[in-house]
Amino acid sequence: MRIDRSGLHDTVLAGVVAAASVAQFVLYGPARLQAEGLPAEGVRAPDPLGALLVVLACAPVAVRRRWPLAALCAGLVPEALLDVAGYGTGVSALSGMVLLYSVASHRGLAVALGALLLAVTTYAVGAVAGPVMASGPNEHVVFAVVLVAVWGAGRSLRLRRAYLEELKDRAARLERAHAADTRAARAEERSRIARELHDVVAHHVSVMTVQAAAARRVLAADPDLAREALSAIEHTGRLAMTEMRNIVGVLRTDARAELGPQPGVRDLPSLVEQMREAGLPTSLRVEGEPVPLPAGVDLAAYRLVQEGLTNSLRHAGAGVKAVVTVRHDPGELDVEVRDDGNGGKSGDGGGRGGDSRDGEVSLPSGHGLVGIRERVALYGGILSIGPLPGGGFEVRARFPLKDGL
């Protein structure tokens, strides 16, 4: 069972305030006032009725946080009766200050100002209607200043509490925004990894399929050639596993950095040689002066060539030749993959399609060249995909390079 500690603390505080007020009421009777040279004319001597009124004035302190304004009003009634009955002004002033502080610290400005005005009015009425304990008007001014100071302390506490709540709320909002950004970054990273895996798997599996078919055809007639094809399949499979292991390894760590360097234009000679081994005669042409490329553009260019050559290997037909051309123009990188096969026919539905400008391209529902479209569009490039006049197929992209890169 959960205990309301704030209510318990307020109850204890009410008891302490009541004890102190009753002690003041009993000790500072007319005789004590006269002994100290204070005006005591008309002041009523302490009695049980007065003590009861003092306790009733202090009792609302027990609920000062739950109903602060109601508690203040309830406490001011016995205090006013004490003044009117002649027990002296300010007998239960301590409880009134506690209740005024509670209203100022737990309620809005309008209610707090109303409570201050009510407390000052009650004191003024008691000072006029009952015997005056003060030695002069200066005492009334001092008491009014004390009331305002108590009220100001309560308002300061409320403003500080509101400021801290605002800071907590802002921190919670920032934490939620950070969590949303983290989720978005993770989703983007998974999408990127999915594209990378598709490119790797589609390319290497296509090469292995072609090599396996060639090995099957010559297995009986030329075992040595079949053995070479099987060795090439093994080598291609190991390359695929190594590259996929590097990519999937990113999923096992919170770091965003790659576990290994990503392929780029510098790796195109190895890719072309691999395609030659797979049975697609391929040549590479590099025009212009090579310049350092942004990492994203470098990877996108490599994947475009990889997907274009894989497309040619799978769908262009027998006896096809492919040409890869990389042009380094001022402010632009032009990458082109052409073959002289049956470019007008579609293979797996994901390879051969239409033309695009500014990254927009009309493609079938496959994922290969669709992924290329997304890569090129990401870097503001222009992608062109489609059959060539007179036969053949072309995949071409032009990437703008900023600041001379």
From TrEMBL:
Domain Signal transduction histidine kinase subgroup 3 dimerisation and phosphoacceptor, first and last residues per copy: 189-254
EC nos: 2.7.13.3
Keyword Transferase: yes
Recorded GO MF terms: ATP binding; phosphorelay sensor kinase activity; protein dimerization activity
Bias type Gly residues, positions: 343-353
Keyword annotations: ATP-binding, Coiled coil, Kinase, Membrane, Nucleotide-binding, Phosphoprotein, Transferase, Transmembrane, Transmembrane helix, Two-component regulatory system
Transmembrane segment boundaries: 12-31, 84-104, 111-134, 140-157
Family matches, as Gene3D superfamilies: 1.20.5.1930, Histidine kinase-like ATPase, C-terminal domain
DUF7134 domain mapped to chain residues: 10-161
A GO CC term assigned to this protein in UniProt: membrane
Positions of the Histidine kinase/HSP90-like ATPase domain: 299-402
CDD domains with a match to the protein in the record: HATPase_UhpB-NarQ-NarX-like (cd16917)
Coiled-coil residue spans: 157-184
Positions with biased composition (Basic and acidic residues): 333-342
Span list, region Disordered: 333-366
Protein name in UniProt: histidine kinase
Organism: Nonomuraea fuscirosea
